[in-house]
Amino acid sequence: MKVLIADDDQISRKVVRALLVKWGFEAVEAADGDQAWQILQEDDAPRLVLADWMMPGMDGPELCRCLREKSESSYHYIILLTSRDSKEDIVDGLNAGADDYITKPFMPQELEVRLRIGARILELQQSLQEALELQRYQAQHDPLTGILNHGEILRILEQELERSCRQNSDLAIIMGDLDHFKKVNDTYGHVAGDAVLVEVAQRIKNNIRLYDAAGRYGGEEFLLVLPGCSEEEALQIGRRILNNIEQQAIKFQDNNIAVTISLGLTCFKTGEQTNVSSLVQQADNALYKAKQNGRNRMEIY
Predict the structure, then answer these.
(1) 215 in Cβ contact with 223 (< 8 Å)
(2) Which is higher by pLDDT, 194 or 106?
(3) What is the signed CA dihedral for 88, 89, 92, 96, rounded to 10 degrees?
(4) 73 pLDDT above the threshold of 70
(5) In terms of CB atoms within 10 Å, which of 5, 154, 239, 294 comes out highest?
(6) Residue 115's domain spans which residues?
């Protein structure tokens, strides 16, 4: 783990650096508080900081305050090094945002123990952050296909509808449903059916724009939200999806499974009074029309 040593005394920095290297840490040096602050703005900056109280420019407590005021997800564990040992100074240092406080001269063993504690806390914080990110991802994505789930795609649709109303911009919605999907499950099994859903979801993602959203609406149904997309542009996207799914069978074990999809398109018109439920219903009605007219096609509401 990287440790930033912020101290204007070059000899002190060299002594601490030698100890850090001996204990298995990677040392990064700063000759004053301003340089330390610049280093801490870099990508992959040290998150464990040893800062001297008295430094030119930004002193140790000020460095602590600036780091705590900075809005970011990564936490810095800060240990203040100083010859000040009064209770008032300790309180001031901790109030400034320091996590720990060591008075000079210090015992190397004490510094090592406190650094190990800081490293352990940072590792726990990183594990917690990763767990929260995983939970957030799982709450938003369909566990089978990896695209957005029912709730999240509707939330995005609501968000984009509000934006379109506010900015008088285009918004298109496509509802898709695999044709005769029950036959796939009955013929090849449900594991094959799952593989088909995963592949179709991936092909849909590959044929929409980066800022479009695709979600699994339910079962073998997919909902696409296309912000800033005119009817003609949405038709082009729909045709790409239709062709890509129809023209290449999906391979599962020794089987080539032919699959097609039907699509229903609706577009939000500027000034129109509508809501998410109405738009989804319109796209669903257009999808139903595509099914009635022979499947493997796209219809417009």
Answers:
(1) yes
(2) 194
(3) -170
(4) no
(5) 5
(6) 2-139
- Please check whether residues 127 and 11 belong to one and the same domain: yes
230 and 130 together in one domain: no
- Mean pLDDT, residues 154-175 taken together: 94
Residue 115 has pLDDT above 70, yes or no: yes
Residue with tokens 């008075």: 103
Dist CA 244 CA 252 (whole Å): 17
Looking at the structure, do residues 75 and 168 belong to the same domain, yes or no? no
